[in-house]
Write a structure and sequence with these properties.
The complex is a heterodimer. By secondary structure, chain A is mainly alpha-helical. The radius of gyration of chain A is 19 Å and the shape is globular. Chain A starts with 7 loop residues before the first helix and ends with a helix. The mean pLDDT of chain A is about 90. Chain B has two domains: about 30 residues; about 120 residues, no CATH class. Chain B has six helices and no strands. The longest helix of chain B is centred in the first third of the chain and has 25 residues. The chains are: A mainly alpha, B mainly alpha. At the A-B interface, α1 and α5 of A face α1 and α2 of B.
Chain lengths: ~140, ~170
């Protein structure tokens, strides 16, 4: 008498969940491009972004233990690693990862959290613009 | 045929059936976990996987009691030294699911210190053969880095047949 195996329905249920979530997510997402987001931050800052300033901002610490690079890498065209958990983090540069900076809410969520971790405060629109401008210059 | 054997042909099929049923019952809990999803008999909520699986693996919900999950969700901006805050609607949705799906059996019998599932008595017991030096390896860093050794952790597979401990 052979033991029953998990049904194919059990195996595909995660897929069904993922599809359902994807449909809802697409409906709810605020699709954007990195260029559009950069334009928005620059406009809010009232000044054009400076990529070199963004690189310096990204790669140095700001009075706390981590810089942005601590998790994302010095040149984030490759996967990084979370400095605390070790988990792999997908590349941040849009040229290396087309999903990056394509949703305004997601972008804002991560800026909010990570700037709080790195700086202990929100990043200004100018700082976000500088970082985004620099990230867009990176190539694989 | 020997009359003393009259009951034996009946006994054997019954014994075989009984044995099969016992084996089935014994393995039923691991059958449901046939792909190694111990402590994760509940399929993870997609938003939980996405939001709570970005910086670490989306830990199996059954590894903490509801009290721990609620405490964590109430303190997301101070999440073990980082800001893990979510917008209210998302936090509420995930929190409801966590509370409903939380562990209550042997794997989550009490709220561990700091609500760290890696300090729960079941977790510690399960990992008692991992020596202290292994946790400190650069490839591992911490007991919360499940995927360092559990190669199927991202898919919720913690089967002991899919473990490779880095050197």
């Amino acid at each position: 008498m052979s033991l029953p195996r998990p049904s194919s329905q059990q195996r595909t249920r995660p897929l069904q969940w993922a599809l359902l979530f994807a449909i809802f997510a697409c409906a709810a997402a605020q699709a954007a491009t990195p260029a559009e987001l950069l334009a928005g931050y620059s406009a809010a800052a009232g000044a054009p972004a400076v990529a070199a300033r963004g690189q310096a901002f990204f790669t140095t610490t700001h009075g706390r233990e981590w810089s942005c690079s601590a998790c994302h890498g010095v040149t984030p065209v490759q996967a990084g690693r979370h400095a605390g958990t070790g988990k792999a983090i997908e590349a941040l540069a849009p040229a290396a990862n087309p999903k990056r900076f394509t949703d305004a809410a997601t972008t804002e969520k991560w800026f909010r959290r990570n700037c709080n971790d790195v700086l202990g405060r929100e990043c200004s629109a100018g700082e976000k613009a500088d970082v985004l401008a620099w990230l867009q210059t990176l190539r694989r | 045929m020997n009359p003393n054997n009259k009951r034996r042909p009946l006994h054997r099929p019954r014994a075989a059936l009984a044995l099969a049923l016992m084996l089935l019952a014994a393995s039923a809990s691991s059958w449901a976990d046939g792909d190694g999803r111990r402590g994760q008999r509940v399929l993870p909520l997609p938003s939980y996987e996405k939001e709570c699986g970005a910086c670490h693996v989306a830990f199996p919900v059954g590894l903490l009691p509801a009290q721990s999950w609620q405490h964590l969700m109430a303190n997301l901006p101070r999440h073990y030294g980082t800001d893990a805050s979510l917008d209210t609607a998302m936090a509420n949705a995930i929190g409801v699911w966590l509370t409903a799906s939380a562990g209550s059996g042997k794997r989550a019998s009490e709220a561990p210190t700091d609500d760290r599932l890696t300090r729960g008595s079941w977790f510690v017991r399960e990992h008692r053969e991992v020596n202290a030096a292994t946790w400190k390896l650069p490839a591992v860093k911490s007991p919360s880095h499940c995927a360092a050794c559990h190669r199927g952790a991202e898919q919720g597979n913690y089967s002991e047949h899919d473990i490779r401990i880095p050197r």
